[in-house]
Amino acid sequence: MENIADNVRRLLEDIPRHVSVVAAAKTRSPSEVSQAVEAGICIIGENFIQEASRAMELVDGDTCWHFIGHLQRNKVGKAVKLFDMIETVDSAALAVAIDKHCLSLNKVMPLLVEVNIAAEPQKYGVLPQDTASLIKKISNLANLRMIGLMTMGPQCTNPDDLIPHFREARRLFEEIDALCIKDVEMKYLSMGMSDSYRQAITAGANMVRIGSAIFGPRR
Ligand SMILES: *Cc1c(COP(=O)(O)O)cnc(C)c1O
Prior knowledge:
With 219 residues, the protein is α/β, with parallel strands linked by helices. Helix content is 41%, strand content 20%. The chain is built from nine helices and eight strands. The chain has helices spanning 4-14, 30-38, 49-58, 76-82, 92-105, 128-139, 163-178, 197-203, 212-215, and strands at residues 20-24, 43-46, 64-67, 85-89, 109-115, 144-151, 184-190, 207-210. An eight-stranded parallel sheet has the order 7-6-5-4-3-2-1-8. α3 (49-58) links the parallel β2 and β3. The protein binds pyridoxal-5'-phosphate. Pyridoxal-5'-phosphate binds next to β8 and α9. The site of pyridoxal-5'-phosphate has 11 residues, from β8 and α9.
């Protein structure tokens, strides 16, 4: 049996305080998520709407819920209702849809833009060179709050191979910050997972998304 509480405590000791830890909960039961929250996790990352709404009913505590999966257009209404942040916006059309649902629910949604940092084909996320212009468009939408970037990085067997990509994401993050776009705050850079969070933090991540190092190997 995986000791989720021990894993969380070890991680929170290892990770500097300025870095927010998102527990990536896909495929985990609400009881597993609850154990992580009791051990000190404050932010839960969910990839699936259905799984998230079930977990939200059952997990107690003052917890923030981030959507970290690919958001399909027909699920936007539900996502807006349920989540406190959406980390995976990668098109103006998706942002417009989120804004519209926020307006009808009288809600302002904090967003990160997902960047396809290595410009991999078939991967979600906006290309690095298109990121600033997407963020400018999003900044004009009244019910959205643009607060940073998220990236996955390529699959690598050696997590050190991700370092150049993480550095590139940090560079882009700072470049966009320097543009001082009205109503945009470059506050969070969400990158790094169980095998790569140390590399990501060294490169400048201040939000990491961690699944298996908390919950054990994925089933
Ligand atoms: C699953 C997932 C993670 C965490 O992955 P682990 O390798 O289990 O830490 C992080 N981010 C996203 C978007 C995920 O889907």
